[in-house]
Design a protein that fits this description.
Blueprint lengths: L1 H31 L8 H17 L5 H23 L4 H21 L18 H19 L2 H11 L1 H6 L4 H24 L12 H14 L6 H18 L8 H15 L5 H16 L1
């Protein structure tokens, strides 16, 4: 028990950030599963984080109420943005959502209520490790059930062939907007929890590189299964600490390391790290059948 407490004292912050990053990665996985390349989830996390932080700091609302407010605000903005933006596809959708993210960042820099470039400070530090992982487990379970639901099969159909899905009676716009809003709300929830974990939030916490990191987590872990983004987030968030443990400072070369891992996964594991588990399961099934 004493060793576990010492381990947590040293690596507790890393464990917390792994959980937050995994929840953020899951939020993007919802839209990627429908074939929508959105780079706006960092912006939704910013909306959720700033809203929850303002509600706690200035209105003295309880933690749960502040989180709910941030989650709802992100979902509402997701609905408003999603209706016109989701008519776009591919790289055009990615660029539109990236532009939206930059607009949110600039708003955070220039508004007094967000603390400007210095950020919002003094947010109550009430998010705990067990809260993060409880929410992460609930979100993962929700997405696992969602994939087997009518909505989930509809999103997969849209990803595979949007024209064919429409001819089968699937309401394309409705399904896309629902997925977009769910992803926005999960990102807003993650942003709110992060704001109450880190005492402060700044526009730098939700910039372009965060949006790219979320995409890398999904590709490295695997988009096709609910636990893929979690695998990617765990690996790439923990990697700098692992390297630091063997005497390598990963900070200056982190982007290069992530890029190398991404390249290797694309070349040798195009379905992500999750495909290793599916292959093992198929192999075990063959052995049992034999």
């Amino acid at each position: 028990m004493e060793h576990l407490l010492q381990f947590y004292a040293i690596y507790g912050s890393v464990i917390n950030f792994i959980g937050i990053n995994a929840l953020m990665a899951l939020s993007l996985n919802v839209t990627l599963s429908a074939g929508m390349l959105s780079l706006g989830n960092a912006a939704f996390a910013a909306i959720g984080g700033y809203t929850a932080g303002i509600l706690s700091l200035h209105f003295k609302l309880p933690y749960v109420v502040s989180l709910a407010g941030g989650t709802f605000a992100a979902g509402l903005v997701g609905l408003v943005i999603g209706l016109p933006v989701l008519r776009l596809r591919g790289v055009f959708l990615a660029m539109a959502t990236l532009a939206f993210g930059e607009m949110v960042r600039l708003a955070a820099v220039n508004l007094n209520v967000t603390g400007g470039a210095e950020g919002l400070t003094g947010i109550p530090n009430v998010t705990t490790t067990w809260m993060i992982y409880l929410v992460l487990a609930a979100a993962a379970y929700f997405l696992a059930v969602l994939r087997r639901s009518r909505l989930g099969w509809g999103l997969i159909s849209i990803r595979e062939d949007e024209t064919a899905a429409g001819s089968l009676g699937i309401r394309i716009t409705y399904y896309k907007v629902v997925a977009f809003v769910i992803g926005a709300m999960l990102a807003g929830l993650a942003g709110g929890m992060y704001a109450h974990l880190n005492y402060l939030i700044t526009p730098r916490d939700y910039g372009f590189f965060i949006a790219v990191d979320l995409l890398i987590y999904n590709i490295v872990g695997g988009i096709g299964v609910w636990y893929g983004p979690i695998l990617g987030a765990v690996m790439l968030t923990a990697l700098p600490e692992v390297l630091r443990g063997i005497g390598v400072t990963a900070g200056p070369i982190r982007l290069g390391i992530n890029g190398l891992i991404l390249l290797l996964v694309i070349l040798f594991l195009p379905n992500g790290l999750a495909s290793l588990f599916s292959r093992r399961q198929r192999s075990d099934a063959k052995v049992e059948a034999g």
